[in-house]
Amino acid sequence: MRKTLIAVLIAGLLLLVVAPTASAITLTKPEKQLLTLINKARAKRSLPALKVNAKLQRAARAHSAQMIARDYFSHNSANGESFGKRLIRFGYTQTNCTSWRAGENIAYGAGLLGTPQAIMKAWMNSKAHKAVILGKGLKEAGIGRARGEFKTLEGTFMFTLDVGKRCY
Fold first, then answer.
1. Which residues contact 104 (CB under 8 A, 6 or more apart)?
2. Confidence class of residue 99 from pLDDT cuts 50, 70 and 90?
3. Are strands 140-150 and 51-52 parallel, antiparallel or unpaired?
4. Which class for 116: exposed (0-12), middle (13-18), buried (19 or more C-beta within 10 A)?
5. Contact call for residues 102 and 162 (beta carbons, < 8 A)
6. Does the reported pTM lie above 0.70?
7. Which of 18, 31, 123, 132 has a CB 3.0–4.6 Å from the CB of 27, allowing a cystine?
8. What is the predicted pLDDT for the residue at 94?
9. Count of CB atoms within 10 A of residue 85's CB?
10. Cβ(42)–Cβ(139) under 8 Å?
11. Is the pLDDT of residue 166 over 50?
């Protein structure tokens, strides 16, 4: 019994030492693909690559999942909360910043229209969405993707791109 307790305590301590921090986040393959496409478009225009921000990532994923779960499509959350307030709720705050800037793109598609490549092409063919992707001074991004039924179409992928810049 004592050896088991010691082994459990050691395992617990090892988890604390080697476990990723709360802010560490791993992108799914499609999320990585979309981020790569975004950063390639930015590089073509001599803009810096966007780095993943865990707070933006969690906000983007939650929004995509909520849109699928609630069967709606909007920058606002289901309760009417704006995307900016949602980002703040997820911790991407203006606190201690001399400036704060954020933007959001959303899209959905099924089949070949639900791939990261198709979503990126649609965004780049839209002046407003392209401006979010190529925003000067932007530094961070979060990409969310959820799959489900949307407006009776099974296998729909919902995408959210949240971008931002916090300056101290």
1. 75, 83, 132, 160, 161, 162, 163
2. confident
3. parallel
4. buried
5. yes
6. yes
7. 31
8. 87
9. 12
10. no
11. yes
